[in-house]
């Protein structure tokens, strides 16, 4: 693939520069393309032509620097969150058979579990119980690990990426992985969080375009 990332710019009118960039970062992460990922980040930095030494808080250069730093932080957070959201497709759970009855070690009424469960329900809506039952049938510790570690500690943390941004990068990553049932659930989750239909279509189109050229 060429290192020319100009094709991403055609999605700016619908998604905006920042969201389109984060979608691309998510796709390159999910498809394990570190060179393309670093190339994209370097291009973003060079294109901004920012004076990183600017210190006057009211100057245009300083504001541009802050915007760039925020985008790079969001890109890093995208990579970090993807580590936890794309590691175990549900197809793997469905195709695995357990021989012995697993033992659960976590407690459902812990504050972490409740926080994570609330975030899980906000994402998956009315199919939440069905999904948790499927995970539980594979191993109950998987449920608690996902709820407490992923949804409570990681995904519900909106200090850098908002809930909506986290769902957008998850949709992009899952689109790369060819797990249609998960993709369907997270697209619905994105809609529940207020992402417009036109934006979702653009996210999926950009993700598929990246998938087809890498």
UniProtKB/TrEMBL annotation:
Higher taxonomy: Eukaryota, Fungi, Fungi incertae sedis, Zoopagomycota, Kickxellomycotina
Domain of life: Eukaryota
Cited PANTHER family: CONSERVED MITOCHONDRIAL PROTEIN-RELATED
Full protein name: Carboxymuconolactone decarboxylase-like domain-containing protein
InterPro entries in the cross-refs: AhpD-like, PTS1_Protein
Source organism: Smittium culicis
């Amino acid at each position: 693939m060429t290192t020319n990332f100009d094709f991403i710019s055609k999605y700016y009118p619908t998604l905006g520069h920042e969201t389109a960039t984060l979608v691309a970062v998510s796709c390159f992460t999910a498809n394990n393309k570190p060179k393309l990922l670093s190339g994209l980040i370097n291009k973003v930095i060079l294109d901004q032509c920012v004076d990183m030494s600017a210190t006057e808080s009211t100057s245009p250069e300083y504001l541009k620097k802050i915007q760039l730093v925020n985008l790079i932080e969001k890109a890093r957070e995208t990579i970090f969150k993807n580590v936890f959201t794309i590691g175990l497709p549900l197809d793997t759970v469905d195709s695995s058979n357990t021989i012995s009855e697993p033992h659960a070690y976590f407690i459902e009424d812990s504050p972490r579990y409740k926080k994570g469960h609330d975030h899980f329900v906000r994402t998956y809506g009315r199919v939440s119980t069905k999904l948790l039952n499927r995970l539980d049938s594979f191993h109950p510790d998987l449920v608690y690990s996902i709820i407490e570690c992923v949804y409570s500690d990681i995904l519900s943390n909106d200090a850098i990426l908002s809930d909506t941004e986290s769902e957008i990068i998850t949709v992009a990553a899952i689109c790369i992985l060819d797990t249609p049932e998960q993709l369907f659930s997270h697209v619905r989750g994105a809609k529940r969080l207020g992402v417009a239909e036109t934006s979702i279509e653009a996210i999926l189109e950009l993700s598929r375009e990246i998938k087809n050229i890498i």
